[in-house]
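Review form for a predicted model. The reviewer records the input and the model, then writes brief findings.
Reviewer: anonymous (R2)
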Amino acid sequence: MKKDNNKKHSSYKKDRFLIALLLILLIISVGYSYLSSNLSIIGLGGTGKIAWDVHFENVVEDRENNIIAVTPAKVAENSTKISFDVELILPGDKYGFDVDITNDGTIDAMIGSLSIYGISFEQENYLTFSVTYADGQPLKEKDLLKAGETKTIHLEISYDDNANVDQVIYDEVINLVFDANYIQADETAVER
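Model under review:
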């Protein structure tokens, strides 16, 4: 009988060992499963603060032609729109001003679109409007404005010297709005 007790005792030890081993394997697999489904990696590199801030500022009227605007060129704070009202009475009259385009953000920008509105169809026959950089090159879509960069542009509206005076509507205030829509620069941006 002693042999049977030893066998039972030995079998009982084996069973306990197998049960303990199975429990340990079960705990490890459940723990691994939980860890793998809830694993999060936290990086400490970071990109810093990203900011978008492209706007016009510092309007300086060109007083050379002695044309005084009814409403001088102005920019709302942090805006990319400039508006003004002016009366040009004689051929050769012109009104102009310089303004800075500033990118105070951390992202390079480019011109997505340019809009000029407020000139009537009739006025287009005898008025010319131009927007150029300081070097005389015109603003164009896709022009690059790097983060932290400022560029000065010159805007001018003029009464054509060769205009047919019979076409001109007198005593008409010209209410003009110029809008430069800047978007995030991509690989198509052109540096000027």
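Findings: Confidence is low (pLDDT under 50) at residues 35-44.
Further findings: The helical segments are 2-37.
Recommendation: see findings above.
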